[in-house]
Each structure stands twice: as C-alpha cells, then as structure tokens.
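Hi team,

Filling in the usual template for the complex we talked about on Friday. All components are listed, including any nucleic acid strands or ligand strings, so the model treats them as one assembly.

SUBMITTER: L.P.
PURPOSE: interface mapping
COMPONENTS: two
RESIDUES: 736
SEQUENCES:
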Amino acid sequence: MRTALCDAFGIDYPIFAFTPSEHVAAAVSRAGGLGVLGCVRFNDAEELDKALTWMDDNTDGKPYGVDVVMPMKIPTEGTSTDLSSYIPEDHKKWVDETLLKLGVPPLPEGEGREGVLGWLHSMARSHVDVALQHRPVLIANALGTPPVDVIEQCHAAGLKVAALAGAPKHAVSHVANGVDIIVAQGYEAGGHTGEIASMVLTPDIVDAVGQDVPVLGAGGIGSGRQIAASLALGAQGVWTGSIWLGTEEYRNLAGNQGWETAFLRATSSDTVRTRIYTGKPARLLKTKWTEAWADEDAPAPLPMPLQNLLVADAHNRINASGDPDVISMPVGQIVGRMNEVRPVAEVMADLVAEFEATVKKLDGIAGI
Amino acid sequence: MRTALCDAFGIDYPIFAFTPSEHVAAAVSRAGGLGVLGCVRFNDAEELDKALTWMDDNTDGKPYGVDVVMPMKIPTEGTSTDLSSYIPEDHKKWVDETLLKLGVPPLPEGEGREGVLGWLHSMARSHVDVALQHRPVLIANALGTPPVDVIEQCHAAGLKVAALAGAPKHAVSHVANGVDIIVAQGYEAGGHTGEIASMVLTPDIVDAVGQDVPVLGAGGIGSGRQIAASLALGAQGVWTGSIWLGTEEYRNLAGNQGWETAFLRATSSDTVRTRIYTGKPARLLKTKWTEAWADEDAPAPLPMPLQNLLVADAHNRINASGDPDVISMPVGQIVGRMNEVRPVAEVMADLVAEFEATVKKLDGIAGI
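RESULT (copied from the run log):
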C-alpha cells in the first residue's frame, strides 16, 4: 500500500492515526503509519513538551505528527475564570441537576482539573511553539484553516500542514491559505464533523483541490475494506481516529474500564452528532448524557469555547465514575466494529492485509 | 464488472437503477444494468399496467424490476377523503399560507391529481398484482420487509425480492422473513434513509447477513469511483437513484425545466434529511420549501401516510410552477455531481469505464 504520501513523509503505509495518546501515536509510527498526537487535552505547555520528548525517544526515529485545534475566527479568549462569567447560571444548574439524576458522584475533594483550554486560540499557538522544539513532520488543524502566520511558521521549519474539511469549499479555502494536505472529514467521523458523508465528500474534495493536493479520507475507516474504498474515491491516504481507542496502548490514557465497556458493546447506530461537547457539531457515543441534552427541558448548547468549559467538570466527574451508560466520548460510527482490544501493531497489520485482499477481489470483479 | 448478481439476473453489470420513469428504467436495462421502476406515483392500477406493457415492449427482452412501498406495519388505511379528516386544520392552513409566502400560484381550475396513495399498503399490494402480470425479475420494497405472503407470492412467480435497510438489524430481519437481496441504504441517499453512512453501513450489513445474501450498496453512488468503493466494502452490486434524474430520458416525466435548473446548480451541501415528504425521514433537495418547514413556526410533520396527503396538493402546485427555488425533490448528496443532462447509455458507459480505471489505480497502490 504505497502512495506519494509514503515518500513525502518517509512512512510505509499512508495510514494517519489521530489519537490523544502518545503511546498509541508512537506505536502507529513504529508500525509504519503516521501517529498524530492530539494536543487539545494539554492545558500545560510543559505537559505537552514531556509527551513529545517521550515520543522522540519511543518512535525508533520514525516520523510523527501533532494535531492542534485552532479556529481561524478567534472565539472569546481569556482564562477559564474570566470565561466562566459568560456561562448562564441556568445552564450550570441544569448540568448539576442532570448529573444528580444520572447518579454521577462529585469528585473527591481536591481532585479534578481545569476545563480544557486547548480549544482556545492562544493555547493552540503555544502547542505549535512547543511542537516545533521536537521533530514532528506534520501539524494538523482539527478545526478549519490555521492562521497564515502559523502555516508559514510550520513551513519555515520544514513541516507539512494539514487541515480538516467537511465541505469542498472549505478545502479550497484551506489550500488558498497554504495548507498542504486536506483531511476530508465525512459525516460518519467521530468528533467535529459536517453533513456530507465520505462516499460523496472524498471525491468532491479530491476534484475540488486538484491532483497536486493530497487528500486523506476520514470518517468510517476501521478496516482494510474501508481503506480500499477511500483510496478508490481518490484519497491518497486515510485519517483514522476512533479505532485506536480500542488498543492496548490506549489503556495508558483511558484510566478506567468504563470506556472499554462502552465502546465494545456499541453498534454503528449508537452515536449522535451534537453541539454539547464543544459548541460545534461533533459526533459522540450515544449515552444517557447525550440523551439528557436531547430532552425538551435541556438548554441549548453554548458557543465554543464556553460549552466545553460548562461541561468540563461534568466530564471529569463522569469519567471518574466510569459508568459506561453515561460516558462522554467522541467516537465515529465505526465504533460498531470496535469489538475487542488489541495491540496497535496487530490492528495495523490487519488493515494492510485486508486492503490487499480487497484489491485482489476487485481485480476479479473487473476481470483484470 | 461482473459479480454473481450478473448471472442471477442475466445482466451485464451489477448496476441497479431505481427510477420513477419507465423511459429511464428501460434505457438502463437496454444498456446492461437493471432498471427498476418505482411504482409509488401510480394511483391507478391501469396506469401502472400501461407503463409495464410499454417496458415489456421497449427493453429488447432485457430484464427489469419494480419497486413498491410497503411498510410491514400497516399504517392508517382508507381513501384520501377518509384520511383527510385526520389532518389538523392548522397544518392545512400553515401549508396554504406558506405557499402564498413563497409565491406558488394555485393550480388552474380542474387540474391537479389526488394525493399519492402509493404509500398505502392496499395500493402497494395492487402494484405487486399488476407487476406479476408482466415480466419483472425483481420486486423491491423501499420501506422495510414486505409482508411474508407477498414475498411468497413473488417467489412462486420466480421473482427475487429485495428490501432496503438502513441498519444491520433491519437487514437481518428482512432475511429472516425471506428477502433475497438487501439494499444497504446509506445516510447520503435520497429519499427514505437512516443515520448510518455507506462507508460504515455497507460492510456492517454484508457481515450481518453473511456471504450467501447479496447486498447492494446504495447512497452516494454516481461515478465509477463510488461503485469501486461500494464493491470494496463488500457489496455485490450498487443501487443508484438520484443520478438518473439527470438524464435525457427522464425529461419525459419531469415536465418542466425547474427540476433541471434546481439539481444542475445544487452542491453536495444542498440536501436535507426531513420528515416533511412522507412522515418518515427522507433526504430532499434543500429549497425554500424545506427551509420553511424548518422554521420555528412550522408545525411538526404528521405520521405516514398523512404527511404526504397533507403536502400532495402543495407538491402539485410547486411542480406546476416550476420554480427551482421552491421545488420539492427527493435526491441524495450525489446531487452535487449532477451537472449536465446526458443520455442513460452514456452515463452507464462512464460508470463502467471509471470503475475499471479505478481498479487499475488501486492495483498500482497495492503493488499488484
């Protein structure tokens, strides 16, 4: 499985793996793909620096990438204390009452951490600055075109820049601003996603940006058949995310069994696209928590970055409780296929083998 | 492009084409695919009989299919006059006022036709009876499992039965009731559709029903690249619909230029999944009509079959006006690719040629 992207990045397979875990990212890179560490969870630059140092030491010299969240339009800025004042009291009250109803206990005294500030522009810029002290080969932006000066900063350091797009017009705008690689994020994907499904979106974006701009197919990809489908649609590689939650290496980050129970039993019908995680539409596992927000009495989600601050403490409490019925987890429709926990290297080997078998099957159908 | 379905049906390509036009269906069958005539628009059994007689005479002896709409759970039955009494006056008033706001004129005195009764169970049964007087090779049900006695009736006449499924559990239930072929209808499809996109749904259904049951991939398929993707996902053929609206043969049915203008300019972002057409979620072109129903002041859509009766006259008026800004048209996200009107035979030839070129490209990537 070789495309031009393999040569561009010095990787064996054009399989890009987005993950918040440095253990997963490093294992993907060691297995011949490109592990991409999601930075949004790092509130503290030193924490990210430490994770990237660990990756430098544990990737056998193989390339890796980092992913930041940098909206082009700068939303409300400030510390979490400043920003809290914009959150209506009724919203806070509803969240507290809902957690009580769902049986989610408070955190033990002194535990818990600040709301995720990675959604803030200033924080994302510091993530880029830290990353450039290490040896990533790719900076991806999970939310629109990065600011042009950041793109130039990355290019000057010899990095490629990727950006997610949910519609052809966004992809064209990314390219006009200097983005090198487009991640075509289909409706079925976990996390922030648009309305157009991969079957239509990938070829639409491939044709919109032209053959000089590589496109990665994203959304619904968790098997070699799906990689073959995405490359048939014109992608030069694939961008995967959800499936890496189901790996042994991810257990270093997950912290409890609730997550595993939740995604191991879920089917492809058990996700929902909602604004309750960040303020923008994102696909999550369907649980009692997402269902509560869909009730008639629930408040409308707040705009980014306020919504994530509103629910940050709730997420801490839910995660600490480990209740799989309530868990708050961004995940794509491919969750229906995450039915066992395996080592990253084994998942990678299966992706490649099934891709090859699929192409041979298509040869038979085409009579080649 | 040959799979086992080609032998089962005596067709050259496993490309199934759903269309309400006998002219399109016959042209697809003549070009080596399987044209499937949608019956829902025929209120009158004699009208359908005439269309099928025309198809018998204009398919060069090639096989064709018919598609009926037969919900397994029988909804409210009766004549359109009886059923009208279930429709709230406020709904009727809102529709009238909305048409006035959108500038849709009333029909000339004496024109217009009765609401579409094809959504009624009794009407769908009469469609099957009429079809069996002709020579279809396939009866498809666009809405769930057909009643078991209808499946047996078709099997006794030597026909295969297909049914649409938007989730693996529905596919498994179809097969348990005797359905021969599953149409995996992805989120991106036009008309009635579920939440799971083709990239995930097709392999989910293929694996759920097992290798003895052929699956057709449906939703988002309008090019040879998309056929290759669908077959890579495990489908034995594809079920297409929207793209045939963009053919010269369809002009026999369309009646005015409004439709063409509307879909030629639409992008893949210009559809919406809504209950306003039939009472069940279906994907339509996004127009001022669908936007009006999304307004806060709009009433909630009624259940099937009442919603279609409520809007039937509005659809007649909108279609007669031919205003592309208001048109009410079921269509999939592939509408973004329908940018010129061509003969059916030319579309078919392109699908086959691009499929072959795509498989050769995948061979290069796989190093075969």
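MY TAKE: Chain B touches chain A through 50 residues (CB under 8 Å). The first strand of chain B starts at residue 15 and ends at 19.

Thanks, L.
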